[in-house]
Every structure is written in C-alpha cells, then in structure tokens.
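Researcher: I'd like a candidate sequence for this fold, 169 residues long. If you have to choose between options at a position, lean toward the conservative one.
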C-alpha cells in the first residue's frame, strides 16, 4: 500500500466559474488559475501522483505551458491516473477536505464524489469529500479563497529499497 498527500489553494476571482471536484457550484466568483482552477481535482491529482512516486501536477501539467490554459481539471486527473495505472498501481481510496467559508458545499458533495470517481475509474464509494469552514480565521475565513487537502491510497508494486538502505534483523 502507498499513501500520497495532496494540497491546493486558490484565491477567488471575479468573472470565473467555481468548479470543484468537476462540479460547477453556483457562486458570484470562481477561482483564479491557469486551468479551470478546480482545487479539489488538483489536490487529488497531487495525492495519487505522490503515492505512485510520479511527482506532482505542476510537473505533469506545467502552468507555463499554453496547452493547459483553461484545461478541465477532471480530465487532467484522469490523465494523471492513467499514468499511475500504467506504473502498476491500483486506486484504493481518496479522502478530500475542502476548506472554505462560502458557498456551502453540502448539496454538491455527492456529485463531486461521483465526478472524481469517474476520473479515477472507480465507484463513488472509494472517494470521500468533506467541507469545513475555517471558523472566520485567516484568508480563508475572510472569504478570499479556498484550500483543499487530499489523501490517496494506492495498491501496487512493492516499494524497492533505495541503495544504501539499512535493514533491521
């Protein structure tokens, strides 16, 4: 078993749609970013890539590459997952926490789990998305943006010991 951690944050920006976990959320502002700025999909992408030892979203889809301008982050998650699967790993589970004051995400969590699961070629029972506030504290509490944390578990090839490693007998 391998575990990876993902994190992403974006400020709110006028004139953009708010896309989280592949779902458009009604809100006056979206998130600033090179792609569609789906911080949920970005955090999950980093978590699966980290668990597989394949780097991060910025290395796979650099934000200075014009081909990713406005990209659908659920599609990027799927592309990253296909690389993870190609490396011999199987997706087991992802747990995601979205931290924001508004809008309330409870009505959208099931749809987000479904969209993430589709990108990961699994069922929604293997993806958990929760929303929490920051209790009014800091930049998130002031409503300036959001942060997302994700943990992903993969099963797959055994980890190899780096050269020079020590064994305990």
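Model: Candidate sequence:
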């Amino acid at each position: 078993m391998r575990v990876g951690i993902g994190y992403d944050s974006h400020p709110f920006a006028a004139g953009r749609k708010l896309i989280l976990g592949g779902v458009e959320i009604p809100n006056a502002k979206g998130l600033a970013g090179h792609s569609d700025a789906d911080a949920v999909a970005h955090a999950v992408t980093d978590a699966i890539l980290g668990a597989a030892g394949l780097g991060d979203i910025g290395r796979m889809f650099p934000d200075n590459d014009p081909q990713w301008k406005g990209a659908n982050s659920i599609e990027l998650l799927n592309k990253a997952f296909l690389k993870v699967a190609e490396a011999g790993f199987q997706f087991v589970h992802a747990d995601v926490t979205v931290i924001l004051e508004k809008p309330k995400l409870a009505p959208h969590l099931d749809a987000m789990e479904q969209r993430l699961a589709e990108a990961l070629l699994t069922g929604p029972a293997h993806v958990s998305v929760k929303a929490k506030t920051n209790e009014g504290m800091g930049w998130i509490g002031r409503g300036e943006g959001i942060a997302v944390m994700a943990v992903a578990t993969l099963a797959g090839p055994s980890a190899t010991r780096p050269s020079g490693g020590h064994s305990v007998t």
